[in-house]
Amino acid sequence: CVHAIGDRANRETLDIFEAAFKSHPDARDLRWRVEHAQHIHAADIPRFAQLGVIASMQGIHCTSDAPYVTARLGPQRAEEGAYVWRKLIDSGALVTNGTDVPVEEIDPIASFHASVTRKLKDGSTFYPAQRMTRLEALRSYTINAAQAAFEEKDKGSLRRGKLADLTILSKDILTIPDNEIPSTEVLYTIVGGKVMYERTPAPPPAPRRSPARP
Hints:
The protein is α/β, with parallel strands linked by helices. It has helices spanning 7-23, 45-51, 59-73, 75-81, 85-90, 108-117, 134-141, 143-148, and strands at 2-4, 33-36, 54-56, 95-96, 166-169, 186-191, 194-198. It has a single domain (2-156), classed as Metal-dependent hydrolases (TIM Barrel), CATH 3.20.20.140.
């Protein structure tokens, strides 16, 4: 894993990987990844798939950084290479997702919402053509992340024989309207088949009492 954010850092990282793979073809099997891959030169976007390098990205970075990205990169560079999930996925690259805590809040629901809407707090959207579909965003958090860690045989999907690690949400995030995603809550977290977290419902409001009369 190599940490790279800007287009120069991503290009130099891909160049290093490419040179290493030519000298040591078996090195491809190690599932190399670039952490963040936030801004990529247009010419380097297809290289992720060509080299088999995983783009380990964080959906929430797009919406939290958007207010100043265009000012720093300019609109053309921002549109061509900033948080280009759609281009990476369509080119065949494996994209994973996360929250990058403690830089961001540890809230996967917020990052999922950013991944599928790219909507900012002011209601605007940051180059929405690069959004993930709901299923792609879910996979980026589950089976894709497991594959990046060589754990796809044990985690990442609900199948017989895999670890019973799962999260139960209050809403179906694949079908609800976009504006309902942020209010989705975690009801249960199950690890190894055991309930490790259960949301405690708020107590009902106390009954109103009439004021005492003299």
